[in-house]
């Protein structure tokens, strides 16, 4: 399914393939659509606030083949600037056939489409970390990071989000996490090769933020990769419903923790700022707010 937001006829266009790895709560789906449709609306807002405003086209493909989805062919990405992998109740460290098939596709795209941008949210963040040789596992504590959460950001995060603050707030919904971020050694030279030859530093994947629960809250690689463990497009109803789905399925057993998290669902968060930062991965925003443009 394809959707287009166009603020003007001459607005620069960013085309994004959204790989849906789960479905939202039935009530959310009836009100707002699939996760891909929800993200389209969110990125349309980010595109509208870009300088200059951006047109945004998304194509949503449900990829869980065991639930009636399909994995796209590499040729389907030829007309796109990037891809985004959504959140999911599946484990990014799992070996479900569709997950292994998706990893194979992503590896092919990473190696053969050097200009394609890779973005991911929650499950998508973890899967892209796994693709590049990082480690993904349940939190050692066994608990969940839920609801409105503070994320401490480093200098990379401050530059990406164009803020002097040392933190942002986003909604969380996960137990699994990236336990070891990708490194050139873990990825191998095919995926993260030296920039200009054997003697130069390899391509670097940076962590831009952390929390007390999860050390790796997001990954960034210049002109190539942007991920976030937290969700950027959740509203109050979505937070409450997604928590309840995990309680009902038995995934969340600490009901007091779930209730406390649900009580934070109404709090404002910085999801739009994260979406705007992702859009800048595709096209530079000339409203620098004092932050210099990173060289290619």
TrEMBL record:
In Pfam terms, one family for this protein is GATase
Residues forming the Glutamine amidotransferase domain are: 114-180
InterPro entries attached to this UniProt entry: ChyE-like, Class_I_gatase-like, GATASE
Q: Which GO terms describe its cellular component?
A: cytosol; nucleus
Question: What is the protein name stated in its UniProt record?
Answer: Glutamine amidotransferase domain-containing protein
Q: Which species expresses this protein natively?
A: Moelleriella libera RCEF 2490
């Amino acid at each position: 399914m394809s959707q287009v937001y166009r603020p003007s006829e001459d607005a620069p266009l960013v085309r994004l393939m959204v790989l849906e790895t789960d479905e939202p709560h039935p009530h959310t789906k009836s009100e707002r659509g699939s996760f891909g449709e929800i993200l389209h609306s969110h990125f349309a807002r980010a595109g509208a606030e870009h300088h200059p405003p951006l047109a945004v086209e998304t194509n949503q493909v449900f990829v869980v083949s065991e639930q009636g989805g399909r994995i796209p062919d590499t040729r389907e990405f030829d007309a796109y600037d990037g891809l985004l992998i959504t959140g999911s109740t599946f484990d990014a460290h799992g070996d479900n056939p569709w997950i292994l098939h998706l990893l194979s596709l992503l590896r092919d795209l990473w190696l053969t489409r050097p200009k394609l941008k890779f973005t991911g949210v929650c499950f998508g963040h973890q899967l892209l970390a796994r693709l590049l040789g990082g480690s993904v596992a349940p939190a050692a504590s066994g608990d969940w990071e839920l609801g409105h959460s503070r994320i401490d950001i480093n200098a990379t995060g401050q530059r990406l989000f164009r803020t002097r603050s040392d933190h942002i707030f986003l909604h969380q919904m996960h137990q699994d996490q990236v336990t070891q971020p990708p490194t050139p050694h873990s990825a191998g030279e095919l995926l993260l090769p030296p920039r200009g030859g054997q003697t130069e530093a390899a391509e670097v994947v940076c962590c831009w933020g952390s929390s007390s629960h999860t050390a790796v809250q997001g990954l960034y690689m210049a002109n190539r990769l942007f991920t976030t463990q937290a969700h950027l497009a959740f509203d109050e109803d979505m937070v409450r419903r997604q928590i309840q789905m995990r309680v009902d399925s038995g995934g969340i057993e600490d009901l007091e923790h779930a209730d406390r998290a649900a009580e934070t669902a109404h709090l404002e968060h910085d999801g739009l700022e994260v979406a705007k930062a992702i859009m800048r991965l595709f096209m530079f925003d000339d409203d620098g707010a004092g932050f210099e443009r990173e060289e290619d």
